[in-house]
Design brief:
homodimer; Nucleoside Triphosphate Pyrophosphohydrolase; Arc Repressor Mutant, subunit A; 2 domains; 10 strands; elongated; DNA-binding; WH_DNA-bd_sf (chains A, B); NUDIX_hydrolase_dom (chains A, B); WHD_NrtR (chains A, B); NUDIX domain-containing protein (chains A, B)
DNA sequence: ATTGCCAGTGTCATTTCGACACATTATTAT
DNA sequence: ATAATAATGTGTCGAAATGACACTGGCAAT
C-alpha cells in the first residue's frame, strides 16, 4: 500500500457519509472489523465520505478496499441513519486533531446522514491495516462488550438484523466462508446469524436438499475426533436458488 | 388544508432528499400515488427535503401527510439512490419556474441523494391534493405505462421488490386493506405483490392457520355471485406472528 | 485397547403442501 | 319463475417437508 493521502474535504460531498459493517467468520464466531482510535480509545466502524462523482456503492467499495485490501466485495446498503444529533460530539475529530491533521471543522462540524453498508468477507483473506487515527484494527466478536463511537453500536445491530432477514436471499454463506468449509462450520454460521441452535441432522438434510453444495472427497484433518468432509458452494446453483429465495425459514 | 407555504431552501439540508412510494389497494389493483406536473406533463413521486432538525423518518411522515392528509402512517425506508447523474436535468425545476416560484438554483442545482420510503395506506381514507406544481394527483396502477421524472420508475420498482421480500415480516395487509375485507381481496393483494397466482383454497387454509384473522359474521353484499365473508386482522396476533416472520414463502 | 467426542447416516410420526372435486349462493339471462 | 353462470365455502388425498431422535463410524488422548 502507498502512504495515506492527506484528507481534503473539498473532494467530498457535505452531509453524506457511510459506515461499513465488515463481517468475518473465524473460530466459529461472527466478527466485525473495527478501528480502535488512538486517542479517544474507542472503537469505530470504518467509514468515509462520498466523492462528488461516486455512487454510494462505489464509495463503499473504495472504503472497504482501503480498509481490508479486498476488491469486488459483497456489499449491501441496509439503512440510512439520520438522527440530527448522531454526529454531535464526534470524538474522531479529536483524534484527527491529535494526529496533527488539522481537521476541517466547517466540514466535520456539519450534520451527517450516514448510509450503513454491510460487507461479507473471507476472514483469512483480509489484511487489516490501521490508519493515521487508529492504533489498532481488530476483529471484534459480536458478543464482546466494547465502547463504540457515536451510534455505531446501533448500526451494527441493524446490520445483523438485516443479515438475519436476508439469509435466504443473499449469498451469505458463500461470501463469509472460505472456499472449502465443513458442515459444522456452515451450521455454526447459520446459528450465529439466527441466534439460535439448529438440529445438526435436520440442518444437513435441508441444506443438502437445496442442491447448492458440492461435497468434496477431502476431509478436514488435524482436529480431534472424526474428520468432517469439506464442502464448497456450487456458485451457479446457489445464485439460481437465491433468486427464488431459499424456501422456509430456519 | 391551508395555503401552501412558499418554499424556502434555507429550511432544508443540501444534498439530501427523499421520495415516497405511496401504495394503495383499490379495485383489486395495487396503485401508487403520483403527482402529475403541470408543465412538463410527467408523473413524479411525492418527495421532499430534509429539515435541519428532522430525522428522515420524521420528514417522510411530514411529506406524506402534506400529500395524503394522513397521520401516523406505516412508512419504511428501503434504499438510498445515489447515482451522481440522477438529479441532472430535473424537469420539476422547469415547473417550479413556470409556476412563478423562482426556484433557488443554488439549491435545486445541487446533487441530491434521495432516500426512498414506501408508505402503505388505506386507499379510501386518502384525500390526495395536487400542489402548486401539479395539475393532478392520481392513483396510478402499477401496470400503467406512464412517463416519469428522473429515476422515479426505478424507485417504484425497488419499492415493490422490497414489499415482496418483506411480505412475511411487515404488516402489509393490515396497512393496505380497509378494516373489513374479504378473503378474495386479501388473496388478490398477495398475488399482486408476489406477481403470481395462488390457489384459492390453499391460500385460505394457510392464512387461516396463522390465526391472525378474525372471521366476521357479516358478508359482503352487492357484488355478483355468492357473497363472501368479511374478515379483519387480529392486530395483536398479527404483530406477534410477524415478529417471528410468517413461516414459508408464498 | 479404551474412552470421549464428534461426524455421518437413517428412521418415523406428524405436519404441511399442492392439486383437486363438490356443494352453496347471489346475480343475470330467459 | 326458472335455469344458467360464476364466484365462494369446504373437504380430501397423496406427496413432500419437518422435527425429534438412535445408531454407527472414525480420530485422538490416555
Amino acid at each position: 500500500m502507498t502512504a495515506t493521502k492527506p484528507f481534503n474535504s473539498a473532494e467530498f460531498m457535505n452531509h453524506i457519509s457511510l459506515d461499513c459493517v465488515i463481517f468475518g467468520f473465524n473460530n466459529n464466531e461472527l466478527k466485525v472489523l473495527l478501528l480502535h482510535l488512538k486517542y479517544s480509545k474507542e472503537y469505530t466502524l470504518p467509514g468515509g465520505f462520498l466523492k462528488h462523482d461516486e455512487t454510494l456503492e462505489q464509495a463503499a467499495q473504495r472504503i472497504v478496499k482501503e480498509r481490508t485490501g479486498l476488491n469486488n466485495l459483497f456489499l449491501k446498503q441496509f439503512k440510512a441513519f439520520s438522527d440530527p444529533d448522531r454526529s454531535k460530539s464526534n470524538k474522531a475529530i479529536f483524534d484527527a486533531d491529535m494526529a496533527g491533521t488539522k481537521p476541517d471543522m466547517t466540514f466535520f462540524g456539519k450534520r451527517f446522514i450516514s448510509v450503513g453498508f454491510y460487507a461479507l468477507v473471507d476472514f483469512r483473506k483480509v489484511k487489516p491495516t490501521p490508519d493515521l487515527f487508529s492504533d489498532r484494527c481488530d476483529w471484534v466478536s459480536l458478543t464482546a462488550d466494547v465502547t463504540m463511537l457515536l451510534d455505531h453500536k446501533q448500526i451494527i445491530q441493524e446490520a445483523i438484523s438485516t443479515l438475519r432477514l436476508q439469509l435466504n436471499q443473499q449469498p451469505i454463506g458463500l461470501k463469509l466462508l472460505p472456499h472449502k468449509f465443513t458442515m459444522p462450520e456452515l451450521q455454526t454460521l447459520y446459528e450465529t446469524i439466527l441466534g439460535r441452535d439448529l438440529d445438526r441432522r435436520n440442518f444437513q438434510r435441508k441444506i443438502l436438499n437445496y442442491n447448492i453444495l458440492d461435497k468434496l472427497r477431502e476431509r478436514k484433518t488435524g482436529g480431534a475426533h472424526k474428520s468432517p468432509y469439506f464442502y464448497s458452494f456450487n456458485v451457479e446453483r446457489y445464485k439460481k436458488a437465491l433468486e427464488e429465495g431459499l424456501s422456509g425459514i430456519w
